[in-house]
Amino acid sequence: MIGRITLQLALLLIFAPLPLGVINKTKALFAGRVGPPLLQPYYDLARLWRKGFVISRTTTWVFLAGPVVGLVVPLLAALLLPFGGLTAPISFTGDLILFVYLFGLSRFFTAAAALDTGSSFEGMGAAREVTFSCLAEPTLLFSLLVLASGAKSLNLGALFGPQLAGQWQNGNSASLGLIFVALFVVLLVENSRIPFDDPNTHLELTMVHEVMVLDHSGPALGMILYGAAMKLMVLSAMLVRIAVPAQTGSLLFDLLIFLAGLLMLAVLIGIVESTMARLQLPRIPQVLVGTTLLSIFALILVLR
Amino acid sequence: MLWFLIGLVLISVSGLPGLFLRRDGTGGERLASLLTLAGALFGLLGVTAALTAGSALSLNLPWSLPGEFLALRLDPISVIFLLPLFLVTVCGAIYGLGYWPQRQHPASGRKLRLFYGLISGAMMLLLAARSGLLFLLAWEAMALCGYFLITTDERTAQVRRAGYIYLIATHCGTLALFGLFTLLDFHSGSLLFPAAATLAAAGSSTMFLLGLFGFGMKAGLMPLHIWLPGAHAAAPSHASALLSGIMIKMGIYGLVRLTSFFAEIPPWWGWTLLLLGAVSGILGVALAIAQHDIKRLLAYHSVENIGIITIGLGLALLGRSYDQPTLTLLGLSGALLHVVNHGLFKPLLFLTAGSVIHTVGSREIDHFGGLLKRQRWTGLFFLGGAVAICGLPPFNGFVSEWLIYLGVFAVVQYPGSQLSLSLLAAPALALIGGLALACFVKVFGVTFLGEARSPAAAQAHEAPPSMLWPMGLLLFASAWIGLFPMSFRALLESAAKAWGGPIPPRLTESMAPLGAISVAGWLLLILLSLIGWLLWRRSQNAPRALGTWGCGYQFPACSMQYTASSFADSLVRLFRFGLWSRRQGGNLTALLPARGEFSSHTPDLILDRTLIPAFASIAWLFRWLSRLFQNGVVAIYLLYVALTLITLLTLLAR
């Protein structure tokens, strides 16, 4: 078990920033630019970690707690999830609820850290973040219910286990497809990607997630970026597993399939970001409610 | 049982000696706290004896009132409700020394202490009572003491109004309970409570509906919650803590006890509770988000949490109706554990809110701000309570919500049954959780973070130790259940057994791996402190003289911070169909607009939007009728007499 945990954490810590590089490269290709090198996110993290802090006198310890929780939560959540064909290192009945609520904890502290600066922009970002996330939450739960009723089990290890391949074949493919779409939307919302949020914008008024971390600097900002990268990887791992449930039995091949899937998903995100415009803020809740309805249809299909 | 009775008497009379002592002395309040502490210890001794004795302790004394015996009994279900009662009563009594000192409140302090002790004693009696008459006596004593606690500060009109509404609501509920116990007497042949799962189905549905109304009124289930927000906002904070943490749970206790009597449970009971629970949960938290008064906000969260408990109880009933013992066990343990948990973190939140109100002198969230720097401990305790009430790990709220989720997810293992509909409870719980998180980020952020929003908040000071220790104790208990949930396993198992019906004997690790939750909680804490320490060390030599970046603007002011109403605005707009907030002003038109104002206010959906207008129009109708008939013309009055006589004669002359 210790070996499994180490392997999983090593995978997460090493590969997490890579999809971000792939997304940026894809977007650059679409725009006809060369773009930053693939490993740019790694350079950024290293540079931020070496830098010093600037801390506003308004803030308290909560300001630092935000980045810390944001980093620890994906680490723990990753241990509950199977990465591709690898089995989940920690698995118990009901761990899927822990998974969902862990991300709730990180949201609580990120938003609180934003409010700690007393800046109205960051307050605005925090308000939008908690609003959109609480609309994304039912979708996630519906998707997990669909997967749980397919797997007849309540732990993530089994939900994303070898039985997924069987489900695609015997008639559950429609609901799995719907779930894939719904979870993809959740992924875009939770990781603040276009069309819900723009990680690259420089206009504070329009930002959601990025504006919450406006006042963070140096190692704290590095932790936030690293945590966000790991969150992207953890949520992507679910999607990759649903899309590619194949399993060879050999550790190395399973690993390679998983990583390839991860990069493909990053390319997909890059394409979505390049081809779509940002949604108007009032439209976002409508899209999220629509996605929830989609996942309800998936549940009805499974339970019929 | 003797220990328990000694404890009961000690707590009940704790406020009595103060009546004979000096009005402005500290002797009475200290003695009251001491008596409460002693009483709670004696009570705890009695409860431990009841648990270790194997079988429940009981006492039957002959008495001359109807109902054969003065029957008292302590079983695991009562114990679950008693444990938070002892802790909260003691914490509140000690907290009251600093919050409502006799010296500063010579007029109301003694009354507050008298009824604080009496209500705690009445609730202890209520939980131990095993005959309908005794139960009703204790219930009425509790309800009346509650009224006096709410109207402690009776000089304000708002408080008196809250008290009247409470009094009307609670007596409507009691009326239903009179009907309930009369029916129970009629069907079981005795005023004594029947044993678990023995009562036949005859008349059970009427009894359930009467109980749902009476107990639901006390618990504050959604359409019946009308008295709750005003009452909890009006009472002194430690009394609100007791009312919100413990007293409303007596409604839940009544429902749990009542449903345990019946041998057969019709499916619609469970469905009704599930629906009411989901409605209370979602609308409760949505109304909470829209509030600006911190105590009203916390009161609406009580409605939300009662909703979560009711969802759990509904699942348990469905498990009984559809013969799914696992579902029953998980739903009931989740509901009962949430009773304990809410009984810990809600008083904690009320006490911390009281500490803030005490120093700032206002209940408006937008008058606080930046308090974490001046009230370190209060802020920390509030944060703990907020994380717990949002159901986030590693605190106790997560464990009980997780058990209820497990119950819901257990349904997926029985495909094709009608139970599938109850799966909708899981996304409802998720929505409740997400909204609660939004609400508590708002409260914590606006109250404790940023810069002070009023001169009073800038001058705030930390509460005295006598107020901090009770909060710390409650947070410790919350964290304990979150980190060692296994310690409650045995109690929950025996409570489920006492509830009756076919039930798995054990809450096994494969059914609900509480051990794994404990490990995950510790892992989270260890990692957080490790990485937190790392970052903290790096941040030590950072310059701290700079202000927050104002995006280029040089002169930011405190009033430019995001306010509570703006934070909640997008969610309030989303829920406008259920909230109907009133918004005034806020439209700036010209290029260089003149001074403008904006305010938003969200009145209660049932009380302010439905009941009061309805009753007002009925009152108007009757006033109109009375003006029509009593018009002061003597001839018309004589005509009424003549008409009545003629009518009576024709009727009687048959």
3D structure, described in words:
The complex is a heterodimer of chains A (304) and B (654). Chain A is mainly alpha-helical. Chain A is 71% helix and 0% strand. Chain A has one domain (2-303). In chain A, helix 6 (120-151) runs antiparallel to helix 9 and helix 11 crosses helix 12. Chain B is mainly alpha-helical and 654 residues long. Chain B has 3 domains: 1-264, no CATH class; 275-530 and 563-582 and 600-605, no CATH class; 607-652. Chain B is built from 26 helices and 4 strands. Chain B has helices spanning 2-12, 16-19, 27-52, 76-99, 109-128, 132-150, 157-188, 204-219, 228-234, 237-247, 249-261, 267-289, 294-321, 325-360, 371-374, 376-389, 396-410, 425-448, 455-458, 465-483, 489-499, 514-538, 564-574, 576-579, 607-629, 634-652, and strands spanning 57-62, 69-74, 582-585, 598-601. In chain B, the strands form 2 sheets. In chain B, strands 1-2 form a two-stranded antiparallel sheet. In chain B, strands 3-4 form a two-stranded antiparallel sheet. In chain B, helix 13 (294-321) packs parallel to helix 17. The longest helix of chain B is centred in the middle third of the chain and has 36 residues, at 325-360. Chains A and B meet through helix 4, helix 5, helix 6, helix 11 and helix 13 of A and helix 16, helix 17, helix 18, helix 22 and helix 23 of B.
The topology string of helices and strands of chain A comes to: HHHHHHHHHHHHH
Distance between the termini of chain A: 39 Å
Task: Indicate how many domains the architecture of chain B comprises.
Answer: 3
Instruction: Categorize the overall geometry of chain A.
Output: globular
Q: Largest sheet of chain B at a glance?
A: 2 strands, antiparallel
Order of helices and strands of chain B: HHHEEHHHHHHHHHHHHHHHHHHHHHEEHH
Average pLDDT of chain A, to the nearest integer? Answer: 90
Which strand-content bin applies to the residues of chain A? under 5%
Q: Structural class of the helices, strands and pairings of chain B?
A: mainly alpha
Rg value of chain A: 19 Å
Based on helices, strands and strand pairing, what is the structural class of chain A? mainly alpha
Fraction of residues in H or I helices of chain A:
over 70%
Uncertain stretches of 5 or more adjacent residues of chain B: none
